[in-house]
Amino acid sequence: MTAQRRSAVIRFLIASTVSVAASTGCSTENNGASGGDASASAATAPAPAEQTDKDAAKALREELSRVGAEEFTAADYKPGRVQHIVLFKFKPDTSSGEQAETMKRFRSLRTQATRDGKPYIMSLDSGIQTSGEEAGMGMKQGYVLTFASEGDRNYYVGKPVVTDPEFYDAAHESFKNSVRPLLDGAIVFDFNASK
């Protein structure tokens, strides 16, 4: 997939998220409804996008439980090109230097994230938001990683799905822990491009 195509995929995902939220009136905020009426139920029920995220996470946890961490994170588990898209929104007080360092450190995972001493990320493209569509939801940096299998993706992602340190990448976990205090939000979206 070319960088131009990846950029188009990211713009599409952001625009789709905004369109779904706008057309359904979804919000992650509680609308202040109380009591036992229908409006209270609607206000406390997960929004469709949130439910999709919960369903995907639940399915992965069930799959992990069924096959075990060793198989779930094996390099040959469910082969096929998997795209892992990450978008960052920084806190207002995050300096431009901290943002630049975040991108530098994320890019370094291409070689520092290893399995059995060898890099396993097929490609890692990144950049700063430049779209004029006004649908970026405040996201500042974007990353598109490609893995050769769902097992490689599972090994890379680790927590909160895979919690045994023997079966996730320590370099990625360290990066996540260091960048978390700088972020005001993030979007993570994975798909198997081979299906």
If you had to describe this structure to a student in words, what would you say it looks like?
With 195 residues, the chain is an alpha+beta fold. It has 7 helices and 6 strands; from the N terminus they run ααααβαββββααβ. It has helices at 3-24, 38-44, 48-67, 69-72, 96-112, 150-157, 170-179; strands at 79-90, 114-115, 118-119, 123-128, 141-149, 183-192. A hairpin with a 2-residue loop joins β2 and β3. It is globular. The two termini are 15 Å apart.
Question: How do the helices and strands follow one another from N- to C-terminus?
Answer: HHHHEHEEEEHHE
Biggest β-sheet: strands ordered side by side in the sheet: 4-5-1-6
Judged by helices, strands and strand pairing, the structural class is alpha+beta
Number of strands: 6
Radius of gyration over all CA atoms, rounded: 18 Å
Mean pLDDT: 83
- Fraction of residues in helices? 40-55%
Cα-to-Cα separation, first versus last residue: 15 Å
**Number of H/I helices:** 7
Q: Which word captures the global form?
A: globular
Largest sheet: 4 strands, antiparallel
> Approximately what portion of the residues adopt beta-strand conformation?
15-25%
**Unreliable stretches covering 5 or more consecutive residues:** 9-42
